[in-house]
Predict the structure.
Amino acid sequence: MAVKIALDNVYPFISEAKIKEYGARLERAQNMLEQGDGPGGEFTGWLRLPGEYDKMEFTRIKDAAAKIQKQSEALIVIGIGGSYLGARSAIEFLCSPNYNLIKKNTPDVFFAGNNLSGAYLNEIIELIGDRDFSINVISKSGTTTEPAVAFRVWKELAEKKYGLAGAKERIYATTDKSRGALKKLADMEGYECFVIPDDIGGRYSVLTPVGLLPIAVAGIDIGACMDGAAAAMNELKARRWDNPAWRYAAARNALYDTGKTTEIFAAYEPSARFIAEWWKQLFGESEGKEGKGIYPASVDFTADLHSMGQYIQEGRRNIFETVLSIARPCCDITLVNDPDDLDGLNFLAGKTLSHINRQAFLGTILAHADGGVPSIIAEIPEINEREYGYLVYFFELACGLSGYILGVNPFDQPGVEAYKKNMFALLGKPGYEKEREDLSKRLNNI
C-alpha cells in the first residue's frame, strides 16, 4: 500500500487494543459509504470516481490543457475552497512551491477568487502584465461572491485584450452540468465547459475537472494521478486492521475521545504546505459541526519548530500530530567539510540534507512524545503523481469514515452560510434589508 500508517508514538498514550475497539464503528461507516445510505450519502461519488470517471471528458481536459499551454503564458484559476486548494496542492507538491518562479515550458498558474482583497488581485494583474493568459473559472453555482467578483474583473480584462470572440477561446468554465449562473453564462458566451459532478462536494473534488484541468496545465500527468487513486480505491476496500485508512480514522477518533481535540498536520518538505491547506478544509469542513470535531491545524517543519514548536512541546495537552513522511527524497545535497569550522558543523560533513532532515523528524517525534503529544506517521514512498493520487483518495476515505464514526454528516457544510448572510446584508444585497438593519444596530453598539 502506498500510504503506511505508523502508530508507535500513539500507543504510549492509548493502547492498540483500545484503538481496535473502533473496528465495529469502522465497519458500519464503511457500509454507509459504500451503500450511500448514511447522512450525505448522495455526495459519495468520489468513492467510485477513480474507476468511473468520464473518459471522454478526461480527454477533453488534456486537450484543453494542451491548448492553454500553447496559447498562454499564464493561467488564472478562479475559485475558492475546494475549487482551488486541491489543484494548488498538486502543483506545489509535484512541481514546486516556487512553480511560477522556476524555468519551465508550461504556463505560470495564478489563483484568484479565493479572497476579497483588491491588493491581492491587483498584484496578479500587474504580474501578468502584457503576457497572454487564459482563465479557468470554477464554481458550481457561479454566484459564490469571491470567485464571482474575481471573474468579473478577469472577464473584462480578457475581453478588452482579445475581444469577445478571442476571450471566449481563452475562458474555461468548470461548473454544474445543466444549471446555475455560470453554466448559463458559459452557454451564452460559448465557453468550453467541464462538469462538477452532482455527487461530489467541493472539498472532495480535486480528482474531478475542478482540479484536473489546472493540474494538467502545469504539465502534471493526470493519468498517473488517477491511476494512483484507482490503486487506493481497490486496496483501501479491505476491511481489516492493516488498512491504513481504518488505522488513521480509528486512531484519531480514539485520541479525540481521550481529550485530544486538536490535530496538527506536519510535514518536513515545504512542497507539502498546500497538501496541509487542502487537508484542513477536508477535515475541518467535514467534521466541525454540531459542537463536535477535531480542530485541524498545520505547521511547516523544521521552520515552525522555531515558532510553534514551543507551544507544541509545552502548551495545552489537547493536541496530537499527523506527520507526513516521504521515504525517498527527489534530490539531495551533501554537506562538505569546512577547514575553519566556525559554525561547528563539521560533524555533519559528508551527510546529506535528507539524512539531517530525517534525524530532525525522528528527534522531534520523540521530544513531542516526551511532552505529551502523540504522533501518527503517514508515510508515502516518494513524491510523484501516482503517490499524490493515492494520498488524496486515502485522506478522502479516512475523512468519510472518521465523520461517520464521530456521528456527523461529513458531506455538508451548513455553517459556511452564516458569514455570507451577514456579508450580503451589510453590502446591501436586495432581500436582506431587515438583516441589514439589525446588523447595523449591533455594529453601532460595538
In short: The longest strand covers residues 319-326. Strands lie at 4-9, 74-78, 108-112, 133-138, 171-175, 192-195, 262-267, 295-300, 319-326, 375-380. The chain has 17 helices and ten strands. Residues 56 and 93 are 27 Å apart (CA to CA).
